[in-house]
Design brief:
Elements lengths: L4 H7 L2 H8 L3 H6 L2 H30 L14 H51 L25 H20 L1
Length: 173
């Protein structure tokens, strides 16, 4: 369920309202990195305190712990609303921090790539050796070796005919 502005005003103190107001998208983008880090730290402290109070009140309501105030709490909706509002504000600020980190990382990557390209181009132009003058060496294959023919010419035809007959017998089967 969404938290109304009226519930938010009832649950937060004046200083907490100011903190939550600075977590809007436009307000957060106008902050410097150091201000953003301080805001994250303050919000975490407030959120942790609200979580501790809400947990304690819940335990007191269930009878697991002794009441700390004059009267035991009957409901913890106020502290739960405060916890939800502060958690949402912290999530917005952490989103802005992550966005800035991505922008920074991308800029570093581009700078690194440009530096690498410059080094590569510098190395290419400086180390290229001059071409040797004269004809290029041609690699030639080995000379063909003539193989002796083991079948004499006078018998060649009859051997061929014998192979044809043998094949015809196999095909006839």
């Amino acid at each position: 369920m969404a938290i109304t502005k009226k519930q938010e005003l009832r649950a937060l103190t004046e200083s907490e309202r100011e903190l939550v107001a600075t977590t809007g998208v436009r307000a957060a983008r106008s902050l410097t990195d150091s201000e953003l880090n301080r805001l994250v730290k303050r919000l975490r402290t407030r959120r942790d305190r609200a979580r501790t109070v809400a947990d304690r009140q819940r335990r007191e309501m269930r009878g697991k712990a002794r009441p700390r105030g004059a009267t035991p709490p009957k409901a913890d909706e106020g502290s739960m609303v405060k916890l939800e509002v502060l958690s949402a504000a912290l999530a917005r600020i952490e989103t802005e921090t992550a966005r800035r980190g991505e922008i920074k990382a991308k800029a570093e990557l581009v700078a690194s790539a440009k530096k690498a390209l410059a080094l590569k181009q510098k190395a290419k132009t400086a180390k290229t050796p001059a071409k040797a003058k004269g004809p290029a060496k041609v690699v030639r294959g080995k000379a063909r070796v003539a193989v002796e023919n083991h079948v004499p010419g006078s018998v060649r035809g009859s051997v061929r005919k014998q192979g044809a007959r043998t094949q015809a017998k196999r095909d006839a089967r």
